[in-house]
Specification:
Layout (H helix, E strand, L loop, with lengths): L1 H12 L9 E7 L6 H17 L8 E6 L6 H11 L3 E6 L5 H12 L5 E4 L11 H9 L4 E6 L7 H16 L8 E8 H7 L9 H4 L7 E6 L13 H15 L2 H29 L7 H34 L6 E5 L8
Parallel strand pairs: 1-2, 1-4, 2-3, 5-7
Antiparallel strand pairs: 3-8, 4-6, 5-6
């Protein structure tokens, strides 16, 4: 609540007079053939209503980003774009991951839009919250975060791990917003600033709050998927979590140094005790103690090396300066059908 109040204060301080924006919805898709038709219908209907109500400009569009889907997703997206110029399609040359797909869509959309909202294709994120996003934008916010009201739809494991993860991120100094996924609005100014960030290891949820633009929060309820099943597997969630930690904080490295100092003190005390016992002639076998100490130090060493390895791997990937994504095809039509 304190963070939300601070965001509202920042929004008021940066309040500006804005014209009706050209809005682009950026929708990443990976193997979503079961849901894209339904999602396009719902999203298209919502945008038409917003245009009729004068909340967005007539040139507003929905931009699907195909992230190397292996099913019929791309073919269906092209059919949707052929039927209605409100829809456009960015197709990546391969599967670059959710974060890169979102970034690709936002960077392409900023060429045409005043504001961009990213939303998942399954529409679990309540699309009716778009009105609130736009209200915050018109009031002066350059970034608006969609935050779920609760996690009642998650299982016990996912709910527990998510809560623990956000607490860990805050402990490590990250400004990531709890229960915020990638449902957010960004103004063209904020997107232009984001384009200046060149790192390969993307964690947008942690990166965008560090930019410092006037921001606000919109709360929404999570809905059931329109069709299909989630493509965000446990391994992908673990990878994203690890990227978030190593991309936004060096505290794990400092914790290794602190841990090493603690072990140094501990073994110093143990060493003094052993020497005293030896001088006094107390020869205790000590097999169990030796085994436990060996296991503890060995485990701590391997964990420490693993953490250091993650950072070295990130440095290795960054020094390559490879593109974060490659766009294969882009479908965009200027002619708009009258609403």
């Amino acid at each position: 609540m304190e963070a939300s109040a601070k965001m509202q204060e920042n929004r008021k301080e940066g309040a500006v007079s804005r014209e009706t924006p050209v809005l682009y919805l950026v929708v990443p898709c990976y193997n979503e053939e079961e849901v894209v038709e339904k999602s396009a219908q719902i999203m298209g209907g919502k945008l038409k209503r917003l245009k009729q109500e004068g909340k967005i400009a007539a040139a507003s569009k929905i931009m699907f980003v195909n992230d190397g889907s292996r099913d019929n997703t791309l073919r269906l997206l092209h059919q949707i774009a052929d039927r209605d110029a409100m829809f456009s399609v960015v197709s990546l040359s391969g599967n670059y991951g959710h974060q890169s797909a979102i970034l690709a869509g936002m960077m392409m959309a900023r060429k045409y839009a005043d504001a961009v909202i990213t939303i998942d294709a399954d529409l679990q994120q309540d699309i009716e919250a778009l009105d609130k996003f736009l209200a915050c934008y018109m009031a002066g916010s350059d970034v608006v975060y969609g935050v779920r009201n609760d996690r009642h739809s998650d299982g016990i494991f996912k709910k527990g791990t998510a809560t623990a993860y956000y607490k860990l991120m805050h402990l490590l100094g990250s400004r990531v917003i709890a229960n915020h996924a990638d449902y957010r609005l960004m103004s063209k100014k904020a997107l232009d600033a984001l384009s200046e960030y060149k790192e390969t290891n993307l964690f947008l949820r942690g990166l965008i709050p560090t930019m410092g633009f006037p921001s606000d929060v919109v709360y929404f309820d999570v809905k059931a998927r329109e069709a299909g099943h989630s493509k965000y597997t446990l391994s992908k969630m673990m990878t994203l979590a690890l990227d978030g930690i190593t991309s936004m904080s060096i505290r794990p490295l400092r914790m290794i140094a602190v841990l090493g100092f603690i072990f140094f003190l501990f073994f110093g005390i143990v060493g003094i005790t052993v020497i005293v016992d030896w001088v006094q002639g107390n020869n205790v076998p000590g097999y169990t103690t030796t085994l436990l100490v060996s296991l503890l130090t060995g485990g701590a060493t391997l964990v420490s090396l693993g953490i250091i390895g993650e950072y070295i791997g990130k440095i290795y990937m960054e020094t390559k300066h490879r593109p974060r994504y490659i766009i294969d095809t882009f479908v965009w039509k200027e002619d708009q059908k009258s609403d």
